[in-house]
């Protein structure tokens, strides 16, 4: 399908969809998927490279460009909770992608929240609450799962801004799924 692809897992059977737009965001989603799988939660990774193909068409010309409802549902089954991670502001991103947004109980979006002042990518992702651990935390929310089942106490403290960010900014260990 043009504009998006499934990189890991099966959207039809996964417990959750982890959707990335942006290279750094994809790295974090891959790490989040690794953690979720380690904790017994199946997760599909989707890369959304052309979000505009998934919007609701505004006119007949645009309808020729965007995907049909059946095509959208094949990659983004409505019954699957999802977490979007984007390099843009998450609210307008979801607004443009209403067809993919299943509501606040089952859809979360992370992205730029106007936080800066860092000198490296991991720091920027942390400041904007878009690290792998923030993705796992958002996944717990849309899955109705306890955060403590998916993240350690030290990781939760870092996610909540109460602990050492280095806890979740350390390089990934082990193979990515």
Write the layout of secondary structure elements.
Layout: E1 4-8, E2 16-21, H1 23-38, E3 43-48, H2 60-63, H3 69-75, E4 82-86, H4 90-96, E5 107-110, H5 121-127, H6 132-143, H7 147-150, H8 153-159, H9 166-169
Parallel strand pairs: 2-3, 2-4, 4-5
Antiparallel strand pairs: 1-3
Helix pairs in contact: 1-6
Describe the protein's architecture and organization.
InterPro entries: Transketo_C/PFOR_II. The chain is an alpha/beta fold and 177 residues long. The protein has a single domain, classed as 3-Layer(aba) Sandwich (Rossmann fold). Helix content is 38%, strand content 15%. The chain contains 9 helices and 5 strands; from the N terminus they run ββαβααβαβααααα. It has a 5-stranded mixed sheet, with helices on both faces. β4 (82-86), α4 and β5 (107-110) form a beta-alpha-beta unit. The chain is globular. The mean pLDDT is 93.
Report the portion of residues in β strands.
5-15%
Structural class: alpha/beta
Task: Provide the helix percentage.
Answer: 25-40%
Dominant shape: globular
**Which consecutive residue ranges, at least 5 long each, have pLDDT under 50?**
none
Named at the architecture level, the CATH assignment is 3-Layer(aba) Sandwich
CATH topology: Rossmann fold
Strand order of the largest sheet: 1-3-2-4-5
Number of helices: 9
Integer average pLDDT: 93
Largest sheet: 5 strands, mixed
Q: What is the ordering of alpha helices and beta strands?
A: EEHEHHEHEHHHHH
What's the number of domains? 1
Distance between the termini: 22 Å
Q: Return Rg in Å.
A: 16 Å
């Amino acid at each position: 399908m043009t504009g998006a692809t499934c990189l890991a897992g099966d959207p039809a059977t996964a417990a959750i969809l982890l959707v990335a737009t942006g290279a750094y965001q994809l790295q974090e989603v891959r790490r989040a998927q690794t953690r979720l799988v380690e904790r017994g939660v199946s997760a599909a990774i989707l890369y959304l490279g052309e979000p505009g193909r998934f919007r609701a068409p505004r006119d007949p010309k645009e309808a020729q460009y965007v995907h049909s409802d059946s095509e959208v549902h094949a990659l983004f089954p409505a019954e699957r909770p999802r977490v979007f991670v984007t390099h843009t502001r998450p609210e307008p991103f979801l607004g443009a992608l209403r067809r993919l947004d299943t509501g606040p109980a089952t859809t979360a979006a992370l992205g730029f929240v106007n936080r800066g002042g860092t000198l490296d990518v991991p720091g920027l992702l942390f400041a904007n609450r878009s690290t792998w651990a923030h993705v796992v935390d958002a996944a717990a929310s849309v899955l109705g799962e306890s955060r403590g089942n998916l993240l350690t106490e030290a990781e939760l403290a870092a996610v909540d801004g109460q602990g050492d960010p280095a806890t979740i900014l350390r390089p990934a260990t082990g193979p990515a799924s």
